[in-house]
Amino acid sequence: MEMMKETENMKYMRHKKRTEEEKKKLLARLKRAEGQVRGIEKMVEEDAYCPDILVQVSAVSSALNSFNKELLACHIRSCVLEDVKNGNDAAVDELVGVLQKLMK
Question: Is the pTM here over 0.85, yes or no?
Fold first, then answer.
């Protein structure tokens, strides 16, 4: 929970202007995952069978992975590509670091 509070108070150093289409796709994926989490909460409250809950947790993980893939694709196509075109090769190192974190 502490990590969440820190994140809420942090100011982000870099920003990315997203198209309405990008926002729409990303938010739809997040809302899907959010709905699934709410469903899991209800299952726990109603004492649902453990394997049924586990299947739903797996679905949430899959939904978040889909979100990450969409966001990563947008990032590579815009931010990374623009930085490399402008001679900022450090963007590739940053991307490698992000990928390493995602693939733990």
Answer: no
On the CB side of 50, how many CA atoms lie within 13 Å of its CA?
A: 0
User: CATH no. for residue 92?
Assistant: 1.20.58.1000
Yes or no: say if 34 and 63 are a contact pair by the CB < 8 Å rule.
Answer: no
- The alpha carbon of residue 85 and the mean position of all alpha carbons in its chain are separated, in whole angstroms, by 26
- Domain total in the chain: 1
pLDDT in tens, 40-99: 999 999 999 999 999 999 999 999 999 999 999 999 999 999 999 999 999 999 999 999
Q: Which domain holds residue 31?
A: 20-102
Q: How far is Cα 36 from Cα 38, in angstroms, rounded to an integer?
A: 5
Residue type, 99: L
Residues composing the chain: 104
